[in-house]
Design brief:
heterodimer, A: three-stranded antiparallel sheet, B: mainly alpha
Chain lengths: 338, 79
């Protein structure tokens, strides 16, 4: 148990460290990537500019340093498991950044990232199900293994436009952190702060128009760490509810193509680019269904307009997540009974 | 409003998660099977509960699939 003053000091230290490191080292890293020619085309903009990629390494450096300092301050083994999960997810994404891997690679290998959580016992045996908790010691293990992989890939699949993945994580982290504080513990809350403030820092460079792309290393790192925090903080369902638009995107895509494939491997594109650089939903019945295609169903939109709409959907699901927190907290405190 | 349909879809998904949670806690959770009146009953109860919980999640996914197909027909193919 930490005292309130210690808690606030620790929170300020880890938040500031993560934010400042990522905010300050990203500009030189952008220059480095440009110099090395590690750039990709931004297809949705006039002139098709080359954008450096990936931002994963800078996010990792900021978060790892902040979490190591936090470990020295509070000595909680959960930090080690969270760090290992994040680092494994980063390397899986980094391999995909360097060399395009088959569709099965990320979902299957991300299962490995869940192992530190299980081995170091960072999970509980109870699954919080809004109305109460369920004691599921055995079912919980496959749930953890699949959750890291699913959430990591879900965030990866929503990273289709400038600033969407980072903006989406910022919005959905707010109910998750509140839930962790109420239903988990203060240490896990502190562990979540470097992710939250680190993403705010990278959003400054990733937002429209992007100066850097996250890459698979960045998105898998963010998604896996989000999932690990929700598991360690007894907030799995709250975390999933906040992610509903992204979950819906993955579900729509998977149930349309009926197999696990990379988006770039799909022959019929769900969305087309018009001459005035507005995006149009494909009329092809064989084209996979995605969240963006559904947003565009009622007419073309610019990239910026689509980004705003995805973030509005993220805000809506986060509000639902807050409503779920209120219900769970009210039942827990006996304010309402069923 | 362009996003109205998607808001409704997310709201339905959330309602389904809440209903499944309610079922797991209040219907499946308290289930207890008395067959042999020894410790085997606890194991059987756990297996039955776990199977029902997994079945409920499968039903949830199937319902979401039906919902998705209907929504797609209504929006994409009409437009």
């Amino acid at each position: 148990m930490v005292y309130l003053s210690d808690f606030i000091i620790n929170a300020v230290i880890v938040s500031a460290l993560s934010f400042l490191i990522i905010f300050l080292i990203t500009p030189p890293f952008i220059k480095y990537l440009n110099k090395k020619g590690k750039t990709v085309v931004d297809y949705h903009k006039p002139g098709k500019p080359m954008i450096p990629r990936p931002a994963g390494p800078v996010i990792l450096i900021g978060i790892v340093i902040a979490e190591i300092i936090l470990y020295l301050l509070i000595l909680d083994v959960k930090i080690i498991s969270l760090l290992l999960t994040t680092i494994i997810a980063f390397f899986i994404g980094y391999i995909d950044d360097l060399k395009t891997m088959p569709g099965w690679f990320k979902p299957v290998t991300l299962i490995l990232a869940a192992i530190p959580i299980i081995v170091l016992g960072s999970h509980g045996n109870y699954l919080g199900l809004i109305f109460d908790s369920a004691f599921i010691p055995l079912l919980y293990i496959p749930l953890i293994l699949s959750m890291i992989s699913i959430v990591g890939n879900t965030i990866n699949s929503i990273d289709v436009f400038n600033g969407v993945a980072s903006g989406f994580i910022i919005i959905t982290m707010i109910p998750l952190l509140v839930s962790v504080l109420l239903f988990g513990n203060t240490n896990v809350f502190l562990m979540g702060l470097p992710l939250f403030f680190g993403v705010i820092a990278i959003y400054h460079y990733h937002k429209f128009p992007s100066k850097i792309f996250l890459g698979d290393s960045g998105t898998l790192l963010l998604g896996s760490m989000y999932a690990a925090i929700s598991i360690a903080g007894n907030s799995e369902i709250i975390g999933v509810i906040a992610l509903l638009p992204a979950v819906m995107n993955s579900f729509l895509f998977l149930s349309s193509v009926k197999k696990i494939v990379e988006h770039r491997q799909v022959k019929t594109r769900p969305v087309l680019l018009s001459d005035d650089y507005r995006l149009v939903a494909s009329k092809e019945s064989r084209a996979p269904a995605t969240l963006v295609r559904l947003i565009l169903a009622k007419g073309p939109l610019s990239e910026k307009e689509i980004i705003n709409r995805i973030l509005i959907l993220g805000t809506f699901s986060s509000i639902l997540s807050f409503i779920s927190i209120v219900i769970q907290y009210s039942i827990m405190k006996g304010i309402i009974s069923l | 409003m362009r996003l109205f349909g998607l808001f409704a879809l997310i709201l339905i998904m959330w309602s389904m998660i809440m209903i499944v949670s309610y079922f797991l806690i209040f219907i499946i959770g308290p289930l207890h099977i008395n067959m042999f009146n020894n410790s085997t009953d606890k194991l059987i109860s756990s297996i039955v509960k776990a199977s029902l919980a997994i079945g409920l999640v499968v039903v949830l996914i199937l319902l979401l699939g039906i919902l998705k197909t209907k929504y797609l027909r209504k929006t994409l193919l009409k437009s």
